[in-house]
Specification:
8 helices; HYI isomerase; Xyl_isomerase-like_TIM-brl; about 220 residues; Sugar_Epim/Isomerase; alpha/beta; single chain; 7 strands; Xyl_isomerase-like_sf
Amino acid sequence: GDPEKGEMGLAAVPGRQDAFRRGLAAAVQYARAVGCPRIHLIAGRVPLGTDRAAVAGEMETTFIENLRYAADLLAQEEMIGLVEPINNRITDPRYFLNTPHQAAAILEKVGRPNLKLQLDLFHCQIMDGNLSRNLETYFPLIGHIQIAQVPGRHEPNSPGELNFPYLFELLESLGYTGYVGCEYAPKGDTLEGLGWLRSYWESRGLQHGRTSKAAE
């Protein structure tokens, strides 16, 4: 979309279908070039000057139409499309897709197996909490996980509400084998900000991400 006009994604924005499809075609080219099998299909914001409730139906219809188009295109590339709920309490008050419940209902209506849920635990905690049950409930739909501590959106071991060692073990027990994206703002530099990961590996008997003899 056009950031100068306040747009962030177009998939659910009425009247912007052509621009969404052009953007998707470009994204597929980039993804193909770098070998990335997943593309986030960003829903977008409720248009300025409109009431969310008044346009919700039209935005959902647009979203479903665009998601079906995207799913069919991505299927030809053997790629996965992702939709991510973003909280509208702190991060983006006008963002259309806000909860995993809303995302799951839309994905069910779309009915395409190569569309999945991109679940950012930061947004999920702010909107609904109940992370253990939500992970268990929506696990079959999850195509990617992102993390950040709440409320500061910093490293997982920074002060906050979430117990990440517990959540990581829950994901393992559920059989999650995908990537976990670090969608946070480091308090210092990047390497310093990854110290939590080294500590977590060591607590699990791992070293530099590889299974140790003891752990085996």
